[in-house]
Amino acid sequence: MSVAVAPQLELRGVTKRFGGVAAVDGVSFEVARGDIVGVIGPNGAGKTTLLNCISGVYHLDGGDILLNGTSIAGMAPHRVARLGIGRTFQIVKPFGSMTARENVGIGALFGSEHERRGVRESFALADEVLELVGLKAKADHPVTALTIPDRKRLEVARAVATRPQLLLLDEVMAGLNNVEIDEALDMVRAVHATGVTVVLIEHVMRVIVGVCRRAVVLDSGQVLAQGEPEVVLRDERVIQAYLGERYAKRLKS
Amino acid sequence: MSWRRVFMILGLVVAAYALLAPLTSLDPAQSAGVPLLADRLWFRIATFIAMFIVMATAWNIIGGITGYAAFGNVAFFGIGAYTTGMLIAKAKWPFLAALPFAPVVAALFAALVGLPLLRLRGHYFAVASLGVGVAVGELVQNIDYNGQPLFGGASGLFLPIYAVDNRGLFFFYVMVAAAALAIAVTWWVLRSRFGYGLIAIRENEEAASVLGVNTTAYKVAAFALAAALTGLAGGIFSQWNVFINQDNAFPIEYNVQMILMALLGGTGTVFGPAAGAVLLQLLIQFLGGSLPMSMNLPFVSDAARPIVAQVILGVLLVMVVIFVPRGVIDFFGGRTRLSLAYLRRSLRETSL
Description:
The structure holds two protein chains of two kinds. Chain A is an alpha/beta fold. Helices cover 39% and strands 23% of the residues of chain A. In chain A, the strands form two sheets. Chain A has a six-stranded mixed sheet with strand order 6-7-8-3-9-10, sandwiched between helices. A four-stranded antiparallel sheet of chain A has the order 2-1-4-5, covered by helices on one side. In chain A, a hairpin with a 2-residue loop joins strand 1 and strand 2 (21-31). Chain A is globular, with a radius of gyration of 18 Å. Chain B has two domains: 1-38, no CATH class; 40-273, no CATH class. Chain B has 17 helices and four strands.
């Protein structure tokens, strides 16, 4: 007897409206365990809104979200986090009065439903995670002393410290230069190698092609295309929606 | 010798004097010829100082550590005072049996109003909590039952005098114990998982929630904890003062004073609010003319003193927020040195 294995994350017709505008309009796709999926799309396509829906920051206006076959729609953000979905914010939201270690320690202290850690244990875990993302040397620095790339790393480290099974990264490469993007890619690969499924929301094409096994393209709140990154990015509709017609023509010629 | 050590020794001497001087009024000390270091008036002022240490330290839990500027905490003080007061005056309970209900009722009330109120942020929360603070006082004075004022009404509530030797001394030490409890609770909070959650909420509530902090439960718990300590002070006050009414159990100016004390001393710290309470309460008593060393203020008549005191407090609030945003505890701790450069830097940072 074969048992159908539920995908780790499944979106079924997820809809979120702001007034009359459907920012996310009937989005459905699946994420398999251990995958790295890129979600791309032009500005205003609904990428961040979708992420806010998954992490419980927004209430859905329609559809359902399932984690390992169980609905998590309508759950408060802290419950979603404890079930194993970690996320970062596009505009980093560090705890300003804390050191890097304390920031990451918050994730370790509160992120897990089952393995509850004490303060000391959590800070020890925070140190491990800081090493993983390459911030170990700056563990005692106040957040305000960190550079922008380091703050983005810290954002990822905090989410990783919650010991998620699924990590949602919201444009962690935005605003970084090429060298910094390479370093950040290494970090994402290192995190993925620990057994975490990763969903990357990205603008930077190179990132999607570089690490993602699958890409989902959003436009005006709807799924335009999905599949292997190289294939999807050659899709004419995608090129037009995402890069504009001029670029589409240039690519053809 | 570093400033830090000077401040610490000075602080310890003041604390030791404040705690031990009242003992010189006891009969054994008097008959042994120990000079009287503290009289009745001093007991009263010192007890008030301890009471404000409780309130400022409690406010710090919700206002300083959690970052929710509660402007109506006097409601909890009044609720505590009336809970204990009613149990003693109407139900004839002994003081020590009635006192534990003051923090319990205050905390339950805080949890009840906190659930809707703590959904508001920033100024909205501040204004709404101020409204609750005012409303509760009015309700307590005006609720009637069978045509009789339920809580003593406008004429207030009289309690039987607590039969204990050296009453002034007794209530001073009870209030000091409450202050010590408030400080100990803060010390524990800042080292606990609970406290880290509260600080995370203060620094960024949305980030805290996606990292697994149950923000609603934590905010309500912090509010209720602050209310419990404030209510405890109120409960002690009711039996100490023997008479309570809307004016002395729900004084609106306490709202501002406890916040100012916490800001002056240093929000989010263990001892900051207590230090602020001592400094500010002494200043208030000095300006009000009730300290022995209070002198006549130039150009100010006795009648105008309370008004002038309020004006000076207002100016002080502005100065503290602009120039010493992290409180004077920063200097005591030796982390910062009081200098013109520090004041300039603060001015630059706070005027962003």
